[in-house]
Amino acid sequence: MAGSLNANAGPRYRHNADESAPYETITLDKLTPILGAEISGIDLSKPLSNRQQDEIHRALAENLVIFFREQHISQDQHLAFGRLFGDLHTHPAAPSEPGKPELMIIHADKDSPRANGEGWHTDVSCDLEPPMGSILYIKKCPPKGGDTLFASMYAAYEALSDRMKTYLDGLTAVHDGESVYRGLYKNFNVADKPEYPRAVHPVVRTHPVTGKKALYVNRGFTRSLVGLPRDESDAILRYLYEHMENPLFQCRFRWQENSIAFWDNRCVQHRAMWDYWPHTRSGNRVTVAGDKPY
Ligand SMILES: O=C(O)CCC(=O)C(=O)O
Ligand SMILES: [Fe+2]
């Protein structure tokens, strides 16, 4: 067949296929060529050597979201693992374990009105300094379902036309926590705060570690593009959201009990599937603080 059915169908995003140097202490099994890798050969309940820590950092930078299976760690070990990557972030609204404000509760069961993270989002992008990453440990899984989808915002950015990249250059967007968080955790008996964070961030951010550019607007928190007429802002954001939802940029993780996902919140969006009602899915999230996007 000469040509494809749709002239626009080919991926405008082509990842750099360079094989990276092997790892010494861990083994990686990639979910897709561009993001997601399952790591084996590491027991997070044991102290990690400097080498192991370096390799986890590198695996995260190269794969954007990394997964560990069959991990048996305590709440304190989960917190300590997070601290290897930076200060911990305290969620402005979500419920946490008693006496452990940095250990967020992720839980849905037959009585839940909703589950966490059901739409595409970046965690807490309404903060002035949004988290660098989130470490989610799922301890109870439904018999089927409850997967989490992740999408590379490097790939989404790369696949934009040069015209669109030029248009977005220098634009900023309003990210609002108020409209997301007020009343959200009522079913966990969490009282509302007087106010929730709101921030303006660049639409395209530069990753402070890799230096790569990533699209940085999300359906969850982004409300408008600064300085544009409302209709234009809405239309551009709608286009960007549809664009970033191309499955070419995604991987999908199937949980098992005692799995951990660690995503780089600066270049990845995620979305949790609540397809397992009336079953229960629960765990904890430790979130690592980040920097002001630029
Ligand atoms: O439950 C999940 O898989 C993800 C929920 C979520 O959005 C989060 O923990 O940040
Ligand atoms: Fe999330």
From TrEMBL:
<comment type="similarity">
    <text>Belongs to the TfdA dioxygenase family.</text>
</comment>
<keyword id="KW-0223">Dioxygenase</keyword>
<dbReference type="InterPro" id="IPR051323">
    <property type="entry name" value="AtsK-like"/>
</dbReference>
<feature type="domain" description="TauD/TfdA-like">
    <location>
        <begin position="29"/>
        <end position="286"/>
    </location>
</feature>
<keyword id="KW-0408">Iron</keyword>
<keyword id="KW-0560">Oxidoreductase</keyword>
<dbReference type="GO" id="GO:0051213">
    <property type="term" value="F:dioxygenase activity"/>
</dbReference>
<protein>
    <submittedName>
        <fullName>TauD/TfdA family dioxygenase</fullName>
    </submittedName>
</protein>
<keyword id="KW-0479">Metal-binding</keyword>
<dbReference type="InterPro" id="IPR003819">
    <property type="entry name" value="TauD/TfdA-like"/>
</dbReference>
<dbReference type="Pfam" id="PF02668">
    <property type="entry name" value="TauD"/>
</dbReference>
